[in-house]
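Intended use. Records such as the DGTPase entry shown here are meant for training and evaluating sequence-to-structure methods. They are not intended to support clinical decisions.
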Amino acid sequence: MEWNKLVSSIRIPTWDKDTNGNVVFAFESDYRRIVKSSSFRRLQDKTQVFPLDRNDFVRTRLTHSLEVAMISRDILNEVIREMQKRSMSVDELKDYHRLLECAALIHDIGNPPFGHFGESAIRIWFENNMNNYNEMNSLNEQQRYDYLEFEGNAQTIRVLTKLHDYNGSSTVGMRLTASVLDSVIKYTAASNKLDKNEDKKKRVLTHKKVGYFYSENEVFASIKETTGTQGKRHPMVYLLEASDDISYTFSDLEDGYKFGMFSIADLKEYLKDCLIDEMFTGDKSEEEQMQDFIRKTQQQTFKYVSQNFVDHYDEIMEGTFTTDLFSGDENILILFSKLKDFCFKFIFEDDVIIKQEIIGYNILNSLLDTFVPLSLKYPSSMNEYEKKLWGYIPKNALQRYEMETKGLSEEEKVYYKIKIAIDYICGMTDGFAKKVYEDLFRV
């Protein structure tokens, strides 16, 4: 892979350039488009960890994305410093902070309501219901698995290249540069090509989850062709992925502590076999100790992943690096892995989270029960009640359907009919999903 292709001002899906190929200007333009977009604003009411919580402290997808952008800058700066120490050329990286920030801001933009459990709710619904609708028998293998293996990462590409209404046009998405789009593509596999090895640690990194949907086959190929990363990850993906992991691990830890889900004593006991000296300062208050621990551990973690990126720079550029930047057996990695386990046990298995996730699941399940069958009937005749329900579907969703199904047979249109419902539901915030649910089902 070569940086002159990896980083360019070519936009997808229109393939035009800004200011004669000035990439710095192009990424500044991307940044403005993202921050001003309604798709980005919706992240302020989408779950990070605590669904439907109205506490003003906990993080949302918006604050999480901002924190990932901040950490990504720190990691890139550390990478540049490390490369300079080793007398490696940094010309390719020193102007790309804005590129990485843009990728951080959009990396969760396709996620449905209620966090990652929202993705699970969609998968479960299709697993339970796909065989109940004769129309779905016409779906090809990839189309079927797009729903059975639904993935927010793939929906992100759909939102950015098609669904976002840019300047009143619903045909071209947000018109971001291919470089920014490719920097959020963590996986390169179609939904029917996933690595299903029972040992998750042995799965091929790029085939662990769905990278793109059938509906975006062509636009995905265009992104990868433009950047020259066919079958590979864009190098910036590694830095974004590390920033994301670091951000959510430590923010989950901080939010869980503020919610009283564990104490400092619980954390020390759980980490006693892998704590690094002076991670906790005993003469301070518990809250100060927690903040010190988070700051010190976070700094050591992003310093390690930065060094790991430089250590494997040639492999990353060749597309032969087969793991993420958390590979190795250093003490800080053992501690970081243990922290993830701690968060799962003390936060995600807490009754408060589980009850909120169940509420979110029931809301999504009811919305899917309502709008998927309705979409399958479109544009056939509907009774009076169904017509009123159909009024919830935004007009630009129907415009998108007409564009994507032009010239297709009725059987081939089924996949896109389902998309009408899924796109509508995925675009909801937590609060709006709850409101629609209450409008329809409140007694």
